[in-house]
Amino acid sequence: MAAAATVAAAAAVAGGVMENFQNLVLLIGTNPLPNFVVARYFLGARPDLRVLVAVHTDETAVQVEHLETVLREEVGRPFCIKRCRLHEAGNARQVERDLDMQVVRNILRGESFHFNYTGGTKVMAVHAYKVLLAHAKRFPPGHASFSYLDADDFTLKSEDGHTWTGGQDWRELVEISFDQLLKLHGCQSNTNKNENVFRLPEINWVFRDYLRQGLILEFTAWVKEVNDEYYRRRAKLQRPGQTRASEPDFYLCDFEDKNKYPFWAYAKMLVCEHLPLPQRWQFDSETGLLLNLKADEKGKAEYQKGVAYLRGKWLECYVHEEINHALQAETNAGKFEVINNWKAIKKAALKNNYALQTEMNTGKLEVISNGKVKKKAALKSTDFELDVAIRYGYQLCGVSVTTEIDEEARKGKAFEALHRARQMGGDEARAVLIATASREEIEELTNNLEADTGGEKDLKILGLPELAGGTIWQEIKKHMKVV
């Protein structure tokens, strides 16, 4: 497979810099992605490696299972995983006793090993390093080696700062698809190919013209006025004691064939004011409202989707189309991968659901549009979205978009994008907020967010200048440190 060829080629380039070893010791944390990256590389590059030693707590035992599942699907040769269960991860002496009894005496014995201390807690890392370093000193040089995965420059470094593989970017050496990333978190794909029916590139180009002409804020204000008028008329129809108001007979969409996208004719008419309407529709030029002579439940559902699009979802679609368009011009297009309409569900055993939607597919980087995630617990459920998610190698970037003008609402979207990106992608993850905001508003929001987070650098704010200038993709790549 392509990933194995990449790892093998990197090993050949590395030459004799890295010695062979028989055991790889990993500290398993709540996010097993760094463990996967290190294990995937060494299983491909070190033929003598036979045993992965997973040091975990009771809380992270399930992460070991997920890690093993994905590695066995990715690696085409035999290996085994041996576990070291820490009885009390916060107790330094107990951690040292567990490592000594379970790893040093029962697993490693006299065999060579490599210890990567990227995952787990600080207590685990410090005392595991102490125990394994003392064990290594009993043997000649070259018997043991140590490393950590640097989240800033995406290299593997030894304890003295030496970079492995010649300082090569490990995102070029190890990749994990979104499908495998979800499996690594205990999720499974549940794609609905009919989910994203409201997506036409030509509509997004209409918004591009509005952005470049500086008219987009007028458009969003107009949509809000029309929608507010709809709900005002809807409220007038509500009778005393009625829990739900009747639907007014305007601004509803009735379609004979949804697959022909008749709503987009309406959407274009709203934006361009020149396209003809389907039969049985009338447009009131004075109020800006669409009058429908016959509305049914399907029409109401399409109306709701259409309003969501016009009230802000257009920006998500526009950003995604802009990224796809920019990717087509990349000279190294083979490194990028884009997937459409991709969902996943948390496995029932963990009582969680995740849903992610994605758009096209072309190589080593994935762009996911409207990555909705739904997490169900026993007593409550929480919904959130990753409007656009980008993967390069094993790095994840979560993009959140908003047409809100309130700064607190914008802050909330930014924090959510950063939290969700790190939840799935770990310390290497990056987040971007794209808002319909001026340069001055972006600067003020950036300063306020840095003050609130203590100088958070993994979050980038983009706005109208980048949207109108067509530089969204270049700014995202710069933020992800993709050259």
Provide keyphrases for this structure.
18% strand, Rossmann fold, Trna Endonuclease, Chain: A, domain 1, six-stranded mixed beta sheet, 15 strands, 483 residues, 3 domains, five-stranded mixed beta sheet
Provide structural commentary.
Helices cover 42% and strands 18% of the residues. The protein is of the alpha/beta class. It folds into three domains: 2-174, Rossmann fold, CATH 3.40.50.10770; 201-312, no CATH class; 324-480, Trna Endonuclease, Chain: A, domain 1 (3-Layer(aba) Sandwich), CATH 3.40.1350. The longest helix is centred in the middle third of the chain and has 32 residues, at 297-328. The two termini are 25 Å apart. Residues 1-18, 193-198, 248-295, 348-364 and 372-384 have low confidence and may be disordered.
